[in-house]
Amino acid sequence: MFISFEGIEGSGKSTVMAAVEHALRAEGRNVVTTREPGGTPVGDATREILLHTRDMAIAPLTELLLMNASRAQLVSDVVRPALERGSVVLCDRYVHSSWAYQGYGRGIPLDAVKRVCDAATGGLMPDLTLLVDVSYETSRARLRGRNARHDRMEREEEAFHRRIRDGYIEIAKHDLRVVRIDGERSPDEVADAALAALSAVIDDRSEV
Prior knowledge:
A five-stranded parallel β-sheet has the order 2-3-1-4-5, with helices on both faces. The mean pLDDT is 92. The protein contains eight helices and five strands. Helix 2 (41-52) runs antiparallel to helix 3, helix 3 runs parallel beside helix 5 (110-121) and helix 4 packs across helix 7 (158-174). The chain has helices at 13-26, 41-52, 60-84, 95-105, 110-121, 136-144, 158-174, 187-207, and strands at 2-6, 31-35, 88-92, 128-133, 178-182.
């Protein structure tokens, strides 16, 4: 099973992913966790360019291609081999991030974004994507509470982040694999909602 976790900055998706990992391991499942961009030496080097470079401008198309270069390596080296071994793969961001950030956020036509993503992944899509949704205001408040320097994406203008959130909501309306979770609730409530969505997918697969 392949599960991805999505959301704007500060949504709490990484915390939700940790809760899901804990629950699956408690059931005795073999779990592999990874993230985007990153997850491989090539991906981690690309992550530095994409998120932590301050002295160079990155064009939207370049950003999309770099994201998917990292993604192609991750799918080849980590995701597909883990799935073939029968592991559950949990990924902090995947193709829906490109749809939201480079498509809705940067304004690259969505069809073009999807073609690039398909080429990078060989069409591999998650069985379930958990979208942890919070408002822009909640996102900013949480980021201000972190004792860390903001990365390149986090420093983008408000309109960019609002377009991304709107994009995620639109994606969830049309992709049945994407389950939108209210991230404004307590961490325990958000985790419970995520685990309920996961249980529904597991039950469906068991019936096949």
